[in-house]
Write the structure tokens for this entry.
Amino acid sequence: MSTNSRIAALREEMKTKQIDAYIIPSTDPHQSEYVAPLWESRKWISGFTGSAGVVVVTKDHAGVWTDSRYFLQAEDELADSEFELHKVLNQGAPEHEQWLMTQLKDGDTVGIDQWMFSAGQVKAMTSRLSSKGVKLNGEHDLIQDIWTDRPTLPDDKIIDHPVIYAGENRTDKLHRLRAKMKEIGVLKHLITTLDDIAWLFNIRGSDVTFNPVIISYAVVTPDNAFLFMDENKIPTELKNELIADHIEIHPYKAITEYLNADVAPNSILVNKTSCNNAIYHSIKKECIQHGDNLVMHMKAVKNDTEIKHFKDVMKKDAVALCNLYMWLETEIKHRPVPEAEVATQLAIFRSQQANYHGESFSAIVGYESNGAVVHYRPEMDTCLSIENKGMLLLDSGGQYIDGTTDITRTVHFSEPSEEQKTAYTSVLKGHISLAKAKFPLGTIGGQLDILARQHLWDRGLNYLHGTGHGVGFFLNVHEPPQGFAPGLGTRSKTTIVPGMVTSNEPGYYKDGAFGIRIENLVVSVESKDIGYLEFDTITLFPIATNLIDFNIMTLEDVDWLNQYHQRVITELTSYLSPTQLSWMEEKCKAVFNSNQALV
């Protein structure tokens, strides 16, 4: 069935249900970034595979709205279909709705599947559309009947995440959560986000690619906890442990009946931005107390055990990356190496490390012009081949039982141009500025974001993605709430507190030419100066130095880089073979500029 045939079939369903426009998002009933195949409706209908985007189909138009990370990818994937790319210039803004209101007339109806949208989104959408006399109908999943081979819910077994890694058992986490619930006066806390459920109950799964989560809902009360999921997925021993911890297991779809039975006023804490509209409206209105997802904020602050494991897993990951770059540098001297082969080989090297569970996202291997495609994913049939010259951007990560990694390095295999060196050095200076930041308690991510951009701005350059995101512990590699980003989103407004693990990843991209990004993970820690915080960089791997223009590096920049590279060698030496250590020492050699003696 071709993409255009799918559009035609959807329009027939729309006609039957008297719907004039239908919106298909990228999410699932849990507002996830990565979703199980069952809910990949936007990908199925359009052929666009990026992780973020919205499809809108009307009687005479089919469009995909996505942001700058995916412009080049979307243009390529939509080229042979009726779908038209609409470039979202204000990431997170409902630009597809603004477009719809110019196309629809008074009395028209927009359709959605309300399970795929949060209650907050539906309320805002209803308000915006009704201002133009347009109605919203959330009752229909129009994809269901036309996607004839649609996948079913995953049925893989879940696993326990031992306290030796988690650092806190599930009963203590529940006790802390109940104390917070008591403070705000609620009897129940509804949790719909998959990573928060996995963290709270110390369980992991494989229901979603890259994210070790389980399709489920949860409710916590003062005396019990309720998990709504397929009971057959739980091994007997783990099920007995959950029951012993006063955790009841109920069918996944029983959540609405359970919530509907509650009659106590203001008894259920619900977060409108994460709870889907269908679940939200299964609760009696008077029973709802709106508020934050308490578990999300608990999970964001890593305990000492988690941080220790994070630091240890960075060493294993560095060994895998060392093997990859050594292999690649050897191979390209003899033959061009496809980008997709590099991604595959990196996964193999990571799989040789203890406690490896899989990739934390699909590796971005962007050679030359493909490096400018921010979330590029190489395919063997269409990817470029890497030669012993030119620039390569490699952004990848691993999921280990004892931690999650996310690292980007940009390298050049020959002599970079002055333009490339200026851009790379500006990115590096921004990375260093953020890594070195000392800031008062109460600082939010948006206030720190400018540190990473200032040196690019000085040269009239910029990048259109955020500078950093939270990272989960053997969980989602993109973990809310904190991060570094401009604007007024959650990441930019969240206060940075000790124990948060966040990425530091400024970049620069020249369409059709090259891309640059340098990414490490940092953990926020208390400074020696009381009332201040700073960052401890925990990623351990060399940063390319042949791309640096030392004329624009300060002495302090060079000192930071040399000290970082010395720490890389110090912490990795015992993990490396003599051959690996020799390679690593060459990459970590001290550097200097014309104003500074060799350090």
Notes: The chain has three domains: 3-137, 159-298, 304-587. The chain has a mean pLDDT of 96.
